[in-house]
Amino acid sequence: MNVRLKNIAVLVIVALLGVFAYQAYWLVQLYHTMSEQVDNDIQEAMRVADLKEVFLRLKSIEEKGPHGMMDVRAGVEEDGSIVAKSVTTTQVTLDGDTLEQKTGVVLRSSPQPDSDSIKSENAFMRMLEEQISVTELAAMIQQGLHLGVDRFEGTRYEKYDTLLTAGLRQLGLSGDHRLVCIKADTVFSHATAGYTPSKRARQFVYNWTDYGRYELTIEPATGLVLREMIGILMASGLIAVLLGLAFYFLIRTIIRQRTLDEMKTDFTNNITHELKTPIAVAYAANDALLNFGEQADEDKRRHYLTLCRQQLERLSGMVEQILSMSMERRRQFKLNVETINFSELLQPVIEQQQVKADKPVTFTTHIEPEGLTVQADRAHLSNILNNLIDNAIKYSPGEAHVEITATSTALSVADHGMGIAADKLPHIYDKFYRVPTGDLHDVKGYGLGLHYVKTMVEKHGWSIDVSSTMGEGTTFTIIFL
Fold this sequence. Notes:
Blueprint: H1 2-64, E1 68-76, E2 82-94, E3 97-108, H2 120-129, H3 131-152, H4 157-170, E4 177-183, E5 187-191, E6 202-209, E7 212-218, H5 222-228, H6 230-291, H7 298-328, E8 337-341, H8 342-356, E9 361-367, E10 373-377, H9 378-394, E11 400-406, E12 410-415, H10 449-459, E13 463-469, E14 473-479
Parallel strand pairs: 9-11
Antiparallel strand pairs: 1-2, 2-3, 4-5, 4-7, 6-7, 8-10, 11-12, 12-14, 13-14
Helix pairs in contact: 1-3, 1-4, 1-6, 6-7, 7-10, 8-9, 9-10
C-alpha cells in the first residue's frame, strides 16, 4: 500500500511538473512572439514617421509655389526585380533663358529566385502573391518619393523626431529614447533629457535612402509586453494554482482515506476484543452461579453478580458510545438541553467509575458555587465525564488520583498519570486514534472516547483544551461559552 501510494504521488507530481513546464514554455514563446511584434511595430513607426515628414515637406513646397515637377514610378521587371524611378524636373535660368533640368534616380531590388521563366504579363501577379514583394515595392516607392522631395527641400529632422515620438506613444512606448539622423553631409542627434542608454537598450535602424538613415535607441519594451500579457499570465497563474490545489487535495484525501481505513481496521480488531472480554467474563460468572452451586455462598454469589453487572455496564458503555457517534452524524440529531445540578450528576458518575475500576482510585472534587447548575444535555454530559474520568484512571499507573473542578465558566478533569507527549496532542481527538502507551499493555480502548467528547462539547457550543506533561499528568478543561 505504501509503495502504491508513493507511486501515485510521484506520478501526480510528475504530471504537475509537466503541465507547469509546458505552460511556462508556451508563455515564454508567447513573450518572444509579442516582443518581436513590438520590434516590428517600432520599425513601422519609424517608416510611417518618415512618410509623414515627407508629405509635410510636399505640402510646404506646394504652398510656396511651383518649382518644378516630380515623377515617381514603380514596376516589376521580367526577372522579378522591383524598379522604382524618381525623376525631378526643375526650372533654371541661363543667359536670360528659362531651361528645364531633369534629374533621375533608379532604384532596383534583387532579382527573384527561379525567375527565368517569369514573363512580363504575370510578373506583377506573382509579386502580389508574395507579401514581401508588396512590402518592398511600397518601401521603394517611398524612397523614390523621398529622393524627389529632397531635391527641393532638406529633411526636417526635428519634425521627424516629434512624429516618431507621437507614434511610439501610440504604441504605449512613452519612455526615454535617443534619435540619431545620419546623412551624407549632416548628423542630427536628439535624446530625451537626462537619458543615457543602458546595456540592455535596443537599437533600430531605418534607411530612408542609400545616403541617409535614422538610428533609434530605446529601452526594451518588456513592461509593455508584460502589460499586454497580464490577462494571459493571470489566467495561467490561476489555472496553475487550481491544478496544484486540486492535486494537493486529491493526494491528501487519498492519504486520509488510507489512514482512516487503517484506523477502522484497528478499531474493528479492538472493539472485537473489547466486546469479547465483558461477554466472556459475564458468561463465566453466570455459568459458575448456575452450574457450580455458587449461589449457596452469599459472598461468592454477590461477587459474581457484581462482576456480571460491571461487565454489562462496560458493554453498555461501549455500545452507547458507538450509537452516540452514529447519531452525531445524522442531521436531525439534537441535544436535549436542560438545567442540571452538577453535583447530582457527578456523584453517580464517580460511583460507577469506582465500581468498574480495576485499581484503587481517589477522587477530589471542587465545585463552586455549591449548587452549581449547567445548561446541558444530561446523558451526553454524563458520557463526557465518564470518558474523561475513565481515561484519567486508565492512563494512571498504579493508584489513580483524579481531580474534578467545576465553576460557572469551566470544568476540568486532571490526573497524575503518565501524561501525553506534545507531538501526540494534536491527534488525540481524531476518530479511532489511540495514544501509544509504550511498555504499558493493559490500557484498553478503541479510539472513540475523546473524539466523542470533543464532538459533544462543540455541539453544546463549548470548547475544550488540554495540557499535559510527560510523567506528571494531563488536564482536560471544558470552557462554557
